[in-house]
Amino acid sequence: MIHLFTTGGTIDKIYHDANSEFTVGDSLLPELLEEANVTVPWRVTGLLRKDSLELTSDDRQQVREAVAACPEERIIITHGTDTMAATAAVLDGTPGKTIVLFGAMQPARMRRSDAAFNLGFAVAAVRLLPAGVYVAMNGEVFEAGKVRKNLKAGRFERD
């Protein structure tokens, strides 16, 4: 069983007008998993609905506690890309679990989004990787504490 936690971020954003006003909406994860015909048992728990720049240390602690308390050993967390590496670092050292954080550069509701690909990649990664904390984005896996987002290039890199 894979347990997916949602925290918000671009993947779940809904843009309301041309001025880029947005809210974080309901997660599309269940729909994306069903469309992809994922047959591995999974469940989704919504934790937060925030842009990652708004996440606090208390929020990150809430994520860590939820992951530690769940019985599943395979965990996927949706997260905004701007502070994903910081949350991965907080989760690092969680014993006995394989934890994969992923997000999207464009909302899942948009036609040209990387969300579905990144979700599929995260599902594969969480099933294949050993216990530890990872960031899986755009076809690459990075270990917690060894990754950063390159804002200029719009991608993740080894730190």
From TrEMBL:
Enzyme class (EC, first level): hydrolase
Entry-linked SUPFAM superfamilies: Glutaminase/Asparaginase
Xref: Gene3D superfamilies: L-asparaginase, N-terminal domain
EC number: 3.5.1.1
InterPro entries according to UniProt: Asp/glu_Ase-like_sf, Asparaginase/glutaminase-like, L-asparaginase_N, L-asparaginase_N_sf
GO molecular function, one term: asparaginase activity
Keywords: Hydrolase, Membrane, Transmembrane, Transmembrane helix
UniProt cross-references to Pfam families, sorted A to Z: Asparaginase
Transmembrane domains' residue ranges: 115-137
Domain L-asparaginase N-terminal intervals: 2-150
Record bears the keyword Transmembrane: yes
Coiled coil: none
Protein name: Asparaginase domain-containing protein
